[in-house]
Amino acid sequence: MSTLYVSTYLGNRFYPLEPRIVDVAIEDIAHGLAYQCRFNGQTSAFYSVAQHSLIVASLVPDDLKFAALLHDAAEAYLGDMVKPLKVMLPAFSEIEDSVTRIIGDRFGVDLSHNPIVKQADLIALATEKRDLMPYSAEPWSYLEGIAPCHEIIRPMTPEEAKQAFLGFFEEMRPGMMPGRVNMPGLPIR
Q: How far is CA 150 from the centre of its chain?
């Protein structure tokens, strides 16, 4: 076992180079994502990865909501690396893929690439750029042809985002009846 680990909110040790299913805890994920700002904090207000995940989940059909909610769960253990760095560090993407697989296994959901979830992720990104990065006027090539949501994002506090994430997780996890959850700050179609 590698000696390199990440200490978690619940006091667990998570080994990113050798992730184990027994080390994955939803409260660690929810807490880590809720207290982590998107875009390295280069936004007009604090905006968490947890709220981003909730928005992505709100944009997909019911059968994909659980996967969409957890699509960035590995970032709770690895951080939210900005896209330019991720492109330059392919080994990081391999580690992230490994952690994502373990999280998917832990919660019984396929977190491999899904084009519908990816499209929702891009719609959320376009909305975030519009609402939270007002000085970023340059076009982002990967958002070409992607329209943002009509609704304006109202950033949640970290604790609000954590509780909303955990609530949505409980409602959407496999075996539960899907429903519509309309939480403040989330664009819901």
A: 21
- Amino acid present at 18: E
pLDDT (0 to 100) of residue 145: 94
Share of the chain above pLDDT 70, in %: 91
Residues facing 6 on adjacent strands: 14
Nearest to 51 by CA among 148, 140, 151, 165: 165
Q: In 3-state terms, what secondary structure has residue 7?
A: strand
Q: Is 90 exposed, middle or buried (0-12, 13-18, 19+ CB in 10 A)?
A: exposed
167 CB neighbour count, 10 Å cutoff = 14
Q: For residues 128 and 47, is the Cβ–Cβ distance under 8 A?
A: yes
CATH for 25-172, options being 3.30.1330.60, 3.40.50.970, 1.10.3210.10, 1.20.1250.20: 1.10.3210.10
Q: What pLDDT, in 10s, does the model give residues 43-79? A: 999 999 999 999 999 999 999 999 999 999 999 999 9
Count CA atoms within 13 Å of residue 26 on its CB side: 18
pTM: 0.90
- Domain coordinates in residue numbering, the chain: 25-172
Amino acid found at 162: K
Res. 159: pLDDT tops 70: yes
